[in-house]
């Protein structure tokens, strides 16, 4: 899998020792990593870099973890980003409060690193299935991410590496409408020197490759004025 398609994990933790241990273990899993030391920095990074999962410490200076969580879950652009809360509090009411603000999961400090990584993978399975699963399917379209094989209605489809990554992105969220900028970030990487025309060209190639001859339509649909989507509606 190319660098750009590896899931991006944001760790928000103010204690340097904790941050170091977490960073080491998340990087070891092959995930891309970005870190923040307080809530304001975290909110800024989420807007700019759109991480795939957020590990969020409850106790932070200034803006608390709970408040960061509440804000992210109230914005349409970040609502679906999974949040794993780290809490030193084992108290049941605090756990409930954490989940009520919208956290998707939590671990209580001191946690085992293995458990934490397993929880992160669990959240990624929902938001970025290709990062933890080996195959993706949608209707008659099947994708084997390990063997790099795509089959549509029983017929092998040959794709270039960029089209393959594009299809992985589409197949992770069938029906989701992607803006071209979002596709660019996800498939080429946030810092890539690529323009939106290039995105159109590769989506065009993918659309052609996914044409079912007898149906005269492709699984890739253009949503006018917005971007592209993979679904069978078109
Ligand atoms: Ca803390």
Count of discrete structural domains: 2
CATH fold naming of the largest domain: Rossmann fold
What is the name of the CATH superfamily of the largest domain? Response regulator
What amount of the residues lies in strands? 15-25%
Count, helices: 8
What is the CATH domain class of the largest domain?
Alpha Beta
- Alpha-beta content class: alpha/beta
Taken from the alpha-carbon principal axes, the silhouette is elongated
What percent of residues adopt helix (DSSP H or I)? 25-40%
The number of strands is 14
**N-to-C order of helices and strands:** EHEHEHEHEHEEEEHEHHEEEE
The whole-angstrom Rg is 19 Å
Question: Can you summarize the main beta sheet?
Answer: 5 strands, parallel
CATH architectural designation of the largest domain: 3-Layer(aba) Sandwich
Listed once per kind, the bound small molecules are: calcium ion
Could you characterize what this model shows?
The protein has 234 residues and is an alpha/beta fold. It contains 8 helices and 14 strands. A 5-stranded parallel sheet has the order 2-1-3-4-5, sandwiched between helices. Strands 6-7-8-9 form a 4-stranded antiparallel sheet, with helices on one face. The protein has helices at residues 16-28, 39-49, 65-74, 92-100, 113-127, 161-172, 180-188, 196-209, and strands spanning 8-12, 32-36, 53-57, 83-87, 105-108, 135-138, 141-144, 149-152, 155-157, 177-179, 211-212, 217-218, 220-223, 227-230. The chain is elongated and about 60 Å long. The two termini are 29 Å apart. It folds into 2 domains: 3-131, Response regulator (Rossmann fold, 3-Layer(aba) Sandwich), CATH 3.40.50; 135-230, Arc Repressor Mutant, subunit A. 40% of the residues lie in helices and 23% in strands. Helix 2 (39-49) packs parallel to helix 3, helix 6 packs across helix 7 (180-188) and helix 6 packs across helix 8. The mean pLDDT is 88. A hairpin with a 4-residue loop joins strand 7 (141-144) and strand 8. Calcium ion binds next to loops.
């Amino acid at each position: 899998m190319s660098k750009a398609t590896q899931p991006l994990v944001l760790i928000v933790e103010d204690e340097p020792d904790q941050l170091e241990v977490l960073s080491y273990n998340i990087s070891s899993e092959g995930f891309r990593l970005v870190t923040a030391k307080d809530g304001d920095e975290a909110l800024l990074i989420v807007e700019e870099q759109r991480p795939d999962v957020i590990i969020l410490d409850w106790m932070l200076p200034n803006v608390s973890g709970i408040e960061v969580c509440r804000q992210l879950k109230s914005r349409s652009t970040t609502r679906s980003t999974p949040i794993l809360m780290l809490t030193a509090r084992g108290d049941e009411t605090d756990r409930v409060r954490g989940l009520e603000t919208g956290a998707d999961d939590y671990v209580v400090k001191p946690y085992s690193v293995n458990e934490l990584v397993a929880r992160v993978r669990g959240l990624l399975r929902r938001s970025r299935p290709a990062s933890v699963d080996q195959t993706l399917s949608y209707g008659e379209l099947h994708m084997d991410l390990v063997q790099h094989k795509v089959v549509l209605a029983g017929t092998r489809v040959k794709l270039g590496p960029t089209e393959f990554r594009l299809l992985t992105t589409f197949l992770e969220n069938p029906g989701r409408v992607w803006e071209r900028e979002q596709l660019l970030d996800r498939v080429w990487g946030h810092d890539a020197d690529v323009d939106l025309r290039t995105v159109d060209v590769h989506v065009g190639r993918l659309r052609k490759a996914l044409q079912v001859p007898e149906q005269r339509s492709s699984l890739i649909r253009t949503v006018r004025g917005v971007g592209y989507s993979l679904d069978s509606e078109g």
